[in-house]
UniProtKB/TrEMBL annotation:
Residues 662-726 are annotated as: Disordered. The keyword Hydrolase applies. InterPro entries: GH, Glyco_hydro_31_C, Glyco_hydro_31_TIM, Glyco_hydro_b. Residues 283-375, 419-552 form the Glycoside hydrolase family 31 TIM barrel domain. Pfam families: Glyco_hydro_31_2nd (PF01055), Glyco_hydro_31_3rd (PF21365). Keywords: Glycosidase, Hydrolase. GO terms for molecular function: hydrolase activity. Residues 560-646 form the Glycosyl hydrolase family 31 C-terminal domain. Belongs to the glycosyl hydrolase 31 family. PANTHER family: ALPHA-GLUCOSIDASE (PTHR22762), HETEROGLYCAN GLUCOSIDASE 1 (PTHR22762:SF120). This is Glycoside hydrolase family 31 protein.
Length: 726
């Protein structure tokens, strides 16, 4: 089965699978003793059986069982591949290139009880004589155990559905898969492994088949390379409080077909995401303006209406960096066709706005309307690598954002191919010193190579605010660092307070998009003077942090580390931090604690180990601790790590270094990556060190020639605080 067959098979099963229900499944099980669904040919169950033969090879080898075979490969980057029934790592849309080379030092060798194992530098893989696959640390501690898969094959030769159960340590916590979950930790229960398409045509939430598991023994990431529809059922474990009766955590994956294959990588969270990025590809580097404020304009007005919206923001002191045009600017809703009556001089408008520092971004529906079939959508041959966009830059657009039409089937691999077509087409057209912006509502591992994810408005009300944060954190742990929700208002689901809290949260997320807050399709001023004042503060702080966001984007491209991180990221061994879902780290310097409840003017914040400064008051706190801080409507609590170096925008528009004083006798530092116009790896990172001796803080730039005075202005904060508080 090649890559194109995988895409076609996803389309065919996606619609049929939706009609099956759990009651039908249970009845079929009782009636025929097999996990079949609905009427049809009889099915037969199959398990691998016992080991019959082993064929060692570089990095592992092939283990042949009575009714199946397992291929195991440990790559040079430490990632472990496993594939059943002859499945190999290629072809795969998830891989950035060819499969990494096998580790020449690792090979299959006999293990106890008739099993086999592969011992590598970072991981040990053990396979039992009946096909259970266990991943262990170099010290022999189990990270996960995958039981032998089970297939249900139709006698007429149709696609085989399969199931695999897995076990993790009792203390382990699941994170991901980046979809419509209540928190970055998915709750116990069933989760659909697919991008559902809503009947209204709104954004389909991204669900990556990527699972990050954090335990005392270590962190590991699992990627199941199968684009078919399926269900993942999770149950976290429980420790026996010293009784020895621990209950392991379990996951059960049921897929409607496709290959049984995947990858596992283990280590620290930073090591795991670095390995994942080396496998699935480095995230695309968005242009610097993409980290500013985007406004989505869905109305049917023309060029003058766009000018009015832009002028409304600038006249009121609201920073604006991009305007996203919705379906209203298209001719009859057809992709790539501009309504010439309402936008007769679109390139002229784009140049005019660019001089104001504002870019235009065009919507592109996933399906292209056929001229001879009015109202119907057709797909280009998306898996064909030659398919790419053309002419968007000539119309004045600096980027595109995709939508999903709920009337047509649209899979995760389709979204990846659509992103590739857009990114490569725009990259060939934009000037050499610029980079394109591509945003999609759906995706598949590897989509990060071409752009980011916009997750739409999400669920309504205050629960939707919490869910939007969870989705961004979850996507970051799946390898997609550039994402964010849409901030809308207009009294739809909570009024002015919720709108302000949404905007304050989004100001610290990688992608900040606001939508219409009223029928005039304007801006925050339509909510009144008070909301306008709060919006001006939030957007102003976002503008001040633009150099820091650019630095984090460069580091994400080079290391795979997410820009938005769970608070346990630097210390996954601290169990209490694993359960913290109402705050996050922005890089390694800032801890953001959004307000997620109505009417709250104070909130409790759990601080990790070390000294942290309240950026609004300068007050210092010593962690680990829980602190109660003010959270008035005009701001949310934000803390800076002692010793941190943040690049921020100075009043003159340049970049200055905001340095937070280390605790007495301690040191700190940070990295700064200045903006670069090329699409490569960008400029060299500037490394700064911070030391403190009494009231004096010394900042140095570390170079190959030695420590030097910083070439940028430095502003030290935290020295005038009230002292560390427990």
């Amino acid at each position: 089965m090649n890559g194109r067959d995988l895409v076609r098979s996803w389309w065919s099963v996606g619609v049929a699978g939706a009609a099956r229900g759990p009651r039908t499944v249970r009845a079929a099980w009782r009636r025929r003793g097999a996990d079949a669904t609905g009427p049809g040919p009889r099915v037969r169950a199959r398990v691998p059986g016992a080991v019959r033969k082993v064929v060692p090879g570089p990095g592992g080898g092939v283990i042949r069982f009575a009714r199946s075979e397992l291929r195991v490969l440990v790559a040079v980057n430490g990632a472990v591949f496993w594939g059943w029934d002859g499945a190999g790592p290629e072809p795969s849309y998830a891989l950035a290139g060819a499969c990494p080379e096998p580790d020449p030092r690792a090979e299959l060798e006999p293990d106890t009880d008739g099993g086999w194992r592969v011992v590598a530098e970072r991981v040990t893989v053990a396979v039992s004589r009946h096909g259970a696959l266990e991943v262990l640390t170099p010290g022999g501690v189990t990270l996960r155990r995958d039981l032998p898969p089970r297939w249900w094959e139709a006698e007429d030769g149709g696609p085989a559905r399969w199931m695999q159960r897995s076990e993790v340590p009792a203390d382990a916590r699941f994170f991901g898969p980046g979809g419509p979950v209540e928190g970055p930790r998915p709750r116990d229960g069933a989760h659909r492994m697919g991008n559902g398409v809503t009947g209204t045509g709104s954004a389909a939430p991204v669900t990556m088949p990527v699972q990050l598991v954090v335990a005392d023994a270590g962190t590991h990431l699992l990627f199941v390379d199968n684009p078919w529809d399926g269900t993942l059922t999770l149950r976290e474990g429980a420790e026996g409080a010293g009784s020895g009766h621990d209950r392991v955590g379990t996951s059960e994956l049921r897929m409607e077909g496709g290959p049984v294959r995947g990858w596992v990588m283990a280590g620290t969270p930073a090591r795991v995401l670095l390995t994942w990025a080396s496998l699935a590809g480095a995230p695309a580097l968005p242009p610097a303006w993409a980290f500013g404020h985007h406004h989505v304009r869905e109305g049917a007005g023309g060029e003058d209406e766009v000018r009015r919206v832009v002028a409304g923001h600038l006249e009121r002191g609201l920073p604006l960096d991009a305007v996203h045009l919705g379906d209203g600017h298209l001719d009859g809703g057809r992709a790539f066709t501009v309504d010439q009556d309402r936008f007769p001089k679109l390139p002229v408008l784009a140049d005019e706005l660019r001089r104001e520092g504002v870019r235009l971004v065009s919507v592109v529906p996933a399906a292209v309307r056929a001229e001879d079939r009015r109202g119907e959508g057709v797909f280009p041959d998306l898996p064909d690598a030659r398919v790419r966009y053309a002419g968007q830059a000539a119309r004045g657009f600096a980027g595109v954002w995709h939508t999903v039409d709920g009337s047509v089937p649209f899979g995760r691999v389709d979204a990846l191919c659509l992103g590739r077509a857009a990114h490569e087409g725009l990259r060939d057209e934009v000037p050499a010193d610029e980079r394109p912006l591509v945003l999609s509502p759906s995706g598949w591992p590897g989509s990060q190579r071409y752009g980011g994810v916009w997750s739409g408005e999400g669920a309504v009300g205050w629960p939707g605010l919490r869910a939007s944060l969870a989705r961004v954190v979850g996507l970051g742990l799946c390898g997609v660092p550039f994402s964010g929700p849409d901030v809308v208002g207009g009294g739809r689901d909570g009024g002015c307070e919720l709108y302000v809290r949404r905007l304050q949260l989004a100001a610290y997320l990688p992608l900040l998009r606001t939508g219409a807050v009223g029928p005039a399709d304007g801006g925050p001023w339509e909510h009144g003077a008070a909301v306008l004042g709060h919006a001006r503060v939030a957007l102003g702080e976002r503008r001040r942090l633009l150099p820091y966001f650019v630095t984090l984007a460069h580091l994400a491209r080079r290391t795979g580390a997410p820009m938005v991180r769970p608070v346990w990221w630097p210390a996954p061994e601290e169990r209490e931090l694993r359960d913290c879902e109402d705050a996050f780290l922005l890089g390694d310097a800032l801890l953001v604690a959004p307000v997620l409840e109505p009417g709250a003017v104070r909130r409790e914040v759990r601080l990790p180990r070390g000294r942290w400064y309240d950026t609004a008051t300068g007050r210092a706190y010593e962690g680990p601790a829980k602190v109660l801080v003010d959270a008035p409507l005009e701001r949310i609590p934000v803390f800076a790590r002692a010793g941190a170096v943040l690049p921020v925008r100075a009043e003159d528009g340049g970049t200055e270094l905001e340095v937070w004083a280390p605790a007495p006798g301690r040191s700190g530092g940070g990295l700064v990556v200045p903006e670069s116009g090329d699409d490569g790896d960008g400029p060299e990172a500037e490394r700064y060190s911070v030391t403190r001796s009494g009231p004096r803080v010394v900042v140095r730039r570390e170079t190959e020639e030695g420590a030097q005075e910083p070439s940028r202005p430095v502003r030290v904060r935290g020295l005038d605080g009230t002292g560390a508080q427990m």
